[in-house]
Write a structure and sequence with these properties.
Helix content is about 45%, strand content about 20%. The chain is α+β, with helices and mostly antiparallel strands and about 80 residues long. Strands 1-2 form a two-stranded antiparallel sheet.
């Protein structure tokens, strides 16, 4: 989907991932935006725990916003999160 917005050289890399898979991963790993498009993401959005600063909470709860890439399952991501 992003190929039409790329210059010629990156288009060649993405079109031939079978050949340039590792260099491509290394090249884009410095860009958080591109990395997020190539992997499933999980971001904690709400945290609930204790009500006082100096008391340890007996329980905690987190809500996680998840975006799965096609081909990955909820079960796989849940295992990874655990």
């Amino acid at each position: 989907h992003i190929a039409p917005h790329m210059s010629f050289f990156p288009r060649i890399l993405f079109a031939n991932r079978w050949l340039f898979g590792y260099p491509l991963t290394w090249l884009v790993s410095d860009s958080p935006a591109i990395t997020a498009m190539m992997r499933s993401t999980a971001v904690p959005t709400m945290l609930v725990a204790g009500v006082k600063d100096n008391v340890l909470a007996s329980s905690a709860k987190v809500v996680v916003n998840v975006r799965l890439l096609p081909g990955e399952t909820q079960t796989e991501l849940a295992e990874w999160l655990r």
